[in-house]
Hints:
Elements: E1 4-10, E2 14-20, E3 26-33, E4 45-46, H1 48-66, E5 73-80, E6 86-89, E7 99-100, H2 108-118, H3 124-127, H4 136-146, H5 148-155, E8 159-162, H6 164-172, E9 182-184, H7 185-188, E10 194-195, E11 200-201, H8 203-209, E12 218-220, E13 229-230, E14 242-248, H9 249-256, E15 265-269, E16 273-280, E17 291-296, E18 304-311, H10 315-323, H11 333-338, E19 348-350, E20 368-370, H12 378-404, E21 411-414, H13 421-431, E22 435-438, H14 443-455, H15 462-468, E23 471-475, H16 481-497
Parallel strand pairs: 1-5, 5-14, 9-12, 15-21, 21-22
Antiparallel strand pairs: 1-2, 2-3, 4-7, 6-8, 10-11, 13-14, 15-16, 16-18, 17-18, 19-20, 22-23
Helix pairs in contact: 1-6, 4-5, 9-14, 10-12, 12-13
Amino acid sequence: MESYIAALDLGTTSNRCIIFDRQARIVGLDQKEHRQIFPQPGWVEHDPLEIWHNAGAVIRGALARAGIGGERVAAIGIANQRETTVVWDRRSGRPYGNAVVWQCTRSDAICRRLAAEGGQDRFREKTGLPVATYFSGPKVRWILDRMPEVRREAAAGRALFGTVESWIIWWLTGGPQGGAHVSDVTNASRTLLMNIDTLAWDDEILAALDIPAAMLPEIVPSSDDRPWGCTRTDGPLGAAVPVCGALGDQQAALAGQACFGAGEAKNTYGTGCFMLLNTGATAVRSRHGLLTTVGYQRRGHPPVYCLEGAIAVTGSLVQWLRDNLGLIPSAPEIETLAASVADNGGAYIVPAFSGLFAPYWRSDARGVIVGLTRFITKAHLARAVLEATAYQTLDVVEAMQKDSGVPLNSLKVDGGMVANELLMQFQADLLDVPVIRPKVTETTALGAAYAAGLAVGFWSGLDELKANWSMDRTWQPRMDPDRRSRGVAAWRKAVQRTLDWVE
């Protein structure tokens, strides 16, 4: 009887479960959105229990669509929105509050204090990261500062911290009845608490942030032939399935794109935009505003590292145009509206809704629309929204080339926005390299499936995974160089207008 691999993709706006066969084909898929909670400007939250309940629902839905039972699933892997922070009670499984989402800027005062004491790069040599609200550590500190009872429980080992994969793995493997409290190396590398050379929590940083070690999960490989536990037979899979693969969503997409060699890169266009360059066994410390992060690790193998450019707002800017301004009825219709004009009419949008991420790292920035004249229509604004994603990606690519010394020859792309052909062509034009879309665009879930499947021998090794990858379409650059230069110059001027807005 044929077996399959399940992947749970725990995204920023929704949970998906996808069932894959040995050829990495999708045989079942289900998806469910969860609420985005905005208590005040700059704050973003999710309900952890809603995420857990939706995870169960999509697992059951995907199995039903595949027409199989959980006993035919050889293993389950997890990809997740990274940095989002959950703190919960070990005894009851009750969260002490909503999850603090990666986009949330509530820890800004904590980060400014940390930077004032030792500079924004005070932990970069150990962690590969700047001090920024993006990362989990300052979010945990904020929770502990605001909730003294949680600090007491944490010191006693009763309050647990984890990113979203930790939270879901704990529930899948038993929850209060002995669930595994683990975090894979890729997610741990995004906390600002892990030493990326030793792959261990750093005592000096924990002391600086005043975070008790007792609340932290065990750090484990991304693909682990020693499963962290099995799903409960009374759980959503209805069978004892090994839980043995986990990756932060962007590292999962790197694996799903089969970027296993040093020098290979991918860009994921989702809620935010995330470009990763595989640097192999070398952790390259960035000097140009990028992050050094763990790409993946298999048990018994050295870790593979990446340079990453993280952009906070890309797909969510399209949602903003739809939901906040009401200029489009649905997200896909932005392409038709934007294509009705030849260019942006001189309007640029820099979506620094929660500050600027890579390569600027300016939490004081806020979003701007510049170049407005009476000529501008909603079609020009739609085009400026799409172009903002491509311009932000260009900023990251240029920083990546400076850090690595490796020229970009082509870019593999994935994520929801790669269906937008106008955006993909503009991206190729702006980067002046081919942009390549794979046949399987669900690369985040596929990477999580690969991590779990490798761990249990479902796939033989990386060569078999590379053989699964195939191209769907390539966009070739065709923009006049002078037009490109003028557009980039105007974009850089617009970025400067966002700075120093928050005092």
